[in-house]
Write a structure and sequence with these properties.
Distance between the termini of chain B: 17 Å
Structural class of chain A: alpha+beta
Largest sheet of chain B: 4 strands, mixed
Largest interface: A-B, 16 and 19 residues
Mean pLDDT of chain A: 88
Number of domains of chain B: 1
Mean pLDDT of chain B: 90
Helix content of chain B: 10-25%
Number of helices of chain B: 1
Shape of chain A: elongated
Oligomer: heterodimer
Low-confidence stretches of chain A: none
Strand order of the largest sheet of chain A: 1-5-7-6
Structural class of chain B: alpha+beta
Strand order of the largest sheet of chain B: 2-1-4-3
Number of helices of chain A: 11
Chain lengths: ~300, ~60
């Protein structure tokens, strides 16, 4: 019995650590410290307990005990719903929205990280059972490292170049290089935009990247991340300087405009490079036969 | 979920009444450019819209 105790302990420890390390409360302001944080840690703990008891249950042998794993795994699907619901509610009072694509992406990640915790716990407790606790520590470290590493996801910086661009007006039209952003009526607002606004170009590296940037959800994610770090001068009923990303219809690159509270061009470019790519928005044209044909 | 009207012209501010016709939207006549800008700004702030310029002496306030 003691042996199983050790096995389960190693599994739970590894699974919980994996959840703890993948739970980062960063500039995206989600989850909010400390209550949202605690909810996820608690769920992560339950997840790792589930993963950890699977190996002893089989070894006992008590095969039917494993079936309850399946039942429990169902519960974790609820996490996605929970996250989605909370974030969608919060959207209504936001001036600059995340967009449903981004929300869906975040919700998925929360769900997946719990499965990762289960898996880490399962593998570690398996190693503890078969090889002993010394090996379990090693396996735990490796699987935690892998779960952080493999689930890192891609960023805008991986698929596109972010370049400086010139902001100017043609009549009443605000332009970033050769892309029309919007019509601005008041001369005072135009003056303000010229003085404090920043424009950049986001140039895709290939056809897949072009399709990704084409997605409005991905653009909303870029805008949301920029605004949550550099701020914006948009206010309720003063939406004239709303940040925007518009594409050049022929050349495929994005022109991005923002009127930030912190007008730092270099930081802005860095922030855009670090915006995560949304899973559901990613273009995959080059993976298909016709996509490759069309590209050349 | 609240319901809103969007992409809709809320008001027109013009210096030249011959440039606007038809109904469905209040039209404000301004004396000069200065008054026109001021009226457009005030209307936009109150209505929560954005001022756009048709580049022919007509401004309109649009809700996005």
């Amino acid at each position: 019995m003691d042996k199983y105790g050790e096995v389960i302990f190693m599994g739970v420890l590894a699974g919980f650590l994996s959840r703890l390390l993948t739970l980062r409360s960063d500039y995206r302001h989600y989850p909010a410290f400390p209550h949202g944080y605690f909810t996820h840690l608690a769920l992560g703990f339950i997840a790792s307990c589930l993963g950890a008891v699977a190996v002893p249950a089989i070894a006992k042998p008590d095969y039917t005990a494993v079936t309850f794993l399946v039942l429990a795994a169902q519960q974790f699907r609820e996490i996605r719903n929970m996250e989605r619901e909370t974030m969608t509610r919060l959207e209504e009072t936001k001036l600059v929205r995340r967009g449903t694509d981004y929300i869906e992406g975040i919700a998925r990640v929360f769900e997946a990280r719990n499965y990762l915790a289960i898996l880490t716990a399962l593998i570690t407790s398996g190693a503890a059972h078969l090889l002993g606790w010394q090996y379990a520590i090693l396996t735990g470290i490796v699987s935690i490292y892998l779960s952080i590493r493999l689930m890192r996801g891609a960023y805008i910086g991986d698929i596109a170049e972010v370049e400086d661009a010139d902001l100017h007006f043609e009549g009443s039209l605000l332009m970033v290089e050769d892309v029309v952003i919007m019509n601005v009526g008041l001369p005072d607002t135009r003056q303000k935009i010229l003085e404090e606004g920043i424009g950049v170009l986001i140039k895709p590296k290939d056809d897949n990247a072009r399709l990704t940037l084409h997605n409005p959800g991905q653009r909303m994610a870029i805008i949301h991340d920029v605004v949550s770090i550099l701020g914006t001068k948009v206010d309720i009923n003063e939406t004239e300087v709303i940040p925007m990303a518009r594409k050049h219809v022929d050349k495929g690159y994005l022109a991005f405009f923002v009127l930030p509270n912190e007008p730092d061009r270099e930081i802005l470019k860095q922030v855009i490079r670090n915006v995560p790519l949304i899973e559901t928005a990613q273009g995959t044209a080059l993976k298909s036969f016709y996509g490759r044909k069309a590209a050349d | 979920m609240d319901t809103k009207i969007a992409e809709y012209i809320l008001a027109i501010v013009t210096r030249d009444l011959t440039k606007v016709a038809g109904g469905g939207c209040p039209v404000f006549l301004a004396e000069d450019e200065k008054e026109q800008e001021k009226m457009a700004l005030l209307l936009a702030r109150v209505l929560g819209g954005v001022v756009h310029d048709l580049e022919n002496g007509v401004y309109f306030i649009c809700k996005h």
